[in-house]
Specification:
The complex is a heterodimer. By secondary structure, chain A is of the alpha/beta class. Helices cover 38% and strands 17% of the residues of chain A. Chain B has a 5-stranded mixed sheet with strand order 2-1-5-3-4, with no helix packed on it. The chains are: A alpha/beta, B mainly beta. The interface between A and B is medium-sized, with 40 and 27 residues.
């Protein structure tokens, strides 16, 4: 497969890579940069947080992020209301000079499940303000339809709760989403723990994956980033190639016709 | 002087202090930051004319890693 002709289209931009990578949880910034490079990702997530004036370490992290040359996707992680998310999105747009936003509005601290009601309110407002919203959402079909109604051109349903590494927990819902929204770019965001799970997402027809913990918390994040990159390419190629139909019964792959010895069986 | 909250810490500032003056006082001058006052985003262009009142809660945020 020639990847130069199989591009990921999000809003009005195209990407060669279908791997969006987070920038948190690495042991140090140098390791983060090396993992981003090994991933081949062109689109990385980051965030904004308060910093104690006494512990202010300048702009070292920000400089390192800029040096990656990647497109930036700021998030609204930790926000629990539409108002918080909208204000943090505005702060991100100004500081990062991008109208792209990964919209997170968390509704429950136990599983970090998105709040669907606040999410739709925030998405509606942000799109009116000119943002390109990529909402982190559940796999609920009706929620996804409402987000599309609000103007979201890309959706990011969860595979599993953030940081769990459990893979695609609800394949029935995810497959339904893919079938009901055939032209909407769908990115599996959160919950992926291994390259095989990422490959499975692409095999199911999802357009890309976004993950962080599985790479950052690997023993060797750089090697794991490379492993995910290969798996994502493999999954995408498999989807385009078309998977065989599963069968209940065995079917020989080697032709039966011309089988030697069969006539020698004693009666 | 009056007290305001800056990133959840109490800070004393002169009456009629602006956000621009606070940023310098707090050691964030010339850094990549964004600001909200009482939960509302304040654009950079308004730092010079936005004065802070007693008990205002100011958030000064910087880029960090995120997923």
């Amino acid at each position: 497969m020639n990847t130069s002709t199989d591009l990921l289209k999000l809003y009005d931009e195209t990407f060669n890579s279908r791997f969006l990578l987070g920038t948190a949880l690495y042991r140090n910034p140098e390791e983060m940069s090396a993992a981003i490079k090994a991933s081949g990702s062109q689109f990385i997530t980051l965030s904004l947080r308060q910093q104690n004036p006494a512990k202010n370490d300048g702009d070292a992290f920000w400089q390192m992020i800029k040096n990656t040359g990647c497109k930036l996707l700021p998030n609204t992680a930790g926000c629990k209301s539409a108002k918080e998310a909208i204000n943090l999105a505005e702060m991100s747009r100004e500081l990062f000079e991008t109208s792209w936003i990964k919209l997170e509005v968390i509704g429950d601290d136990y599983n970090l499940q998105p709040d669907p009601f606040e999410l739709v309110i925030a998405a509606t407002q942000l799109i009116k303000r000119g943002f390109k919203v990529l909402p982190y959402c559940t796999d609920d079909l009706v929620l996804c339809l409402r987000l599309i109604d609000a103007g979201c051109e890309v959706l990011m349903p969860w595979g599993a709760p953030i940081g769990t590494g459990r893979g695609l927990m609800n394949k029935y819902h995810l497959k339904s989403l893919r079938e009901r929204l055939p032209t909407t770019p769908l990115i599996i965001d959160a919950g992926l723990g291994s390259p095989s799970q990422a490959a499975e997402a692409l095999e199911l027809g999802f357009d890309a994956v976004l993950l962080n913990t599985a790479v950052a918390k690997a023993d060797d994040p750089v090697l794991m980033a490379h492993a995910f990159s290969l798996a994502i390419q493999a999954g995408r190629s498999a989807y385009l190639a078309g998977l065989m139909q599963r069968r209940q019964t065995a079917s020989p792959s080697t032709p039966i016709l011309g089988q030697p010895f069969w006539h020698q069986q004693s009666s | 002087m009056h007290n305001i909250m800056v990133n959840n810490q109490t800070m004393a500032v002169a009456d009629n202090s602006t956000i621009s003056q606070l940023i310098t006082l707090a050691g964030f001058a010339d850094q990549a930051i964004a600001v909200a006052v009482n939960g509302e985003f304040v654009p950079k262009a308004q730092y010079g004319q936005t004065t802070l009142s007693h008990n205002d809660a100011v958030d000064i945020v910087k880029p960090i890693g995120g997923g």
